[in-house]
Every structure is written in structure tokens, then in C-alpha cells.
Design goal:
By secondary structure, the protein is α/β, with parallel strands linked by helices. The protein has a single domain, classed as NAD(P)-binding Rossmann-like Domain (Rossmann fold, 3-Layer(aba) Sandwich), CATH 3.40.50.720. The chain is built from eight helices and seven strands, in the order βαβαβαβαβαβαααβ. Strands 3-2-1-4-5-6-7 form a seven-stranded parallel β-sheet, with helices on both faces. Strand 4, helix 4 and strand 5 form a beta-alpha-beta unit. Helix 1 crosses helix 8, helix 3 crosses helix 4 and helix 4 runs parallel beside helix 5. The longest helix is centred in the middle third of the chain and has 29 residues. The chain is globular.
Length: about 250
Amino acid sequence: MFDLSGKTCVVTGANTGIGQGLALGLASAGANIVAVGRSQPEETRAQVEDTGCKFAFVEADLGDISSVPAVVEKAEAAFGLPAVLVNNAGTIKRNDALDFTEEEWDSVMDVNLKTLFFLSQGFAKRWVAAGERGKIINIASMLSYQGGIRVASYTASKSGVMGLTRLLANEWAAKKINVNAIAPGYIATNNTAALRADEKRNAEILGRIPAGRWGDPSDLSGAAIFLASTASDYVHGTTLPVDGGWLAR
């Protein structure tokens, strides 16, 4: 039920951190991986190929939706029509709301929400045309539930990811397309290195996590495999927190 052998999963932003963890987790279940991003993810490639699965890279600037048709075309050319799209690529800008600029707003919304939608649309059109089942896994955030501070466009975009996940599920469930999301908690990656190095903030964060530790990118693998596999065929429009209990505290 959880076997992904013979399936291809497209993962955006798979160079490091959460995206790399998702790619490796899906490969561990047998999936071939097509990574999409601006630079060659050589470390991810090596680790995926070590599992015996195939790996391909599609270069694209995900801040510009004009790249979407080529991404869809090249991903299918790699190993055939993909079965799964993981919309992981994201960016963040920090500034006080009083000083937040249009560039800081648009650059985040373009990657985190606009391209996510049009990539989803592009693959959905291919699945519908081919009469095939498809799975979309969006990467949401704890800030899909909470407000945060100094990250106006990130919070708006990740709140939008949760809403868009529900909208697309409503429209596409009857077309055999599952649209769901994963909301990672505090995960130990390059992006959170500064937080973990700040003794006070690190202690505050750990004090609220019932599991008592930061998450590892590999902690997201089980949720991704579930949502990519036939085990989740009747799961539509949900956002699954993988947060060590953060939201329960």
C-alpha cells in the first residue's frame, strides 16, 4: 500500500533541508525523483541513486511562472508522466510590517503561492488528459495556523497554501487527483541554524515542543510516503502537521 516503486515524484527545491529529506524519503519507498530548482542538487542526486532509484534534474526559476510549461514537459520527458508533485520550494523575507516592501511581498508570494498553483494546474491538466490518478503534496507551515512576526508575505503565502489545498481538493477529487499538504514544525535545517544557535530562542522553542527535540527532515518522510501512495487515495484537502506536538501545546 505504501510502495512507490515505478512511480515518479517531482520535488521542487530538493537541494537541502526539507526538500532533500522529502526526496530521499520518497526514494526509500521506491520512487524515481525529478528535482526542480535553480541549481544542480548533486548531494541529493547521489543519495537518491544510492537507493537504486533514478534521478533527474530540471533547472527552473520558480519565482517566474513562465517556467511552468517547460518544467511539466521536461519532468514528463525524464521518466514518463509523474504520479506525484511535491510543491516544496519556498522563500522568506523578514521585516517589520510597517516597513515591508512590495518586492519583499511579491518575491515570496510568487514562489510560495503563485508558482505552486500554476505548477499544480500544469500537472493536473496532464493527469486529466491522460486519465491518470495524480497526487499533489503542498508544503505548508506552522504559520498556516499562526501569525508569526516580521514575515508578512510568508504568513500570507502559507495561509494561502492551506486554503488552496482545500480549494483544489474540492475541484479535483472527482478527477482522481488528491491534493493535500504537510505542515512541518521546527525542523533542523540550514534555514533554522540561527534559531538553534540562539540559546534563549532555542530553549523557548524546545520548551513548547512535546517531543522535546527539533525535527529532522527525515521525520517528514512517513507523511510524504503516505500522501504519495495508494494508502491516501481517500484523503483529500487535509493539512497534516508534522510538528512534534507543537500545535497541541
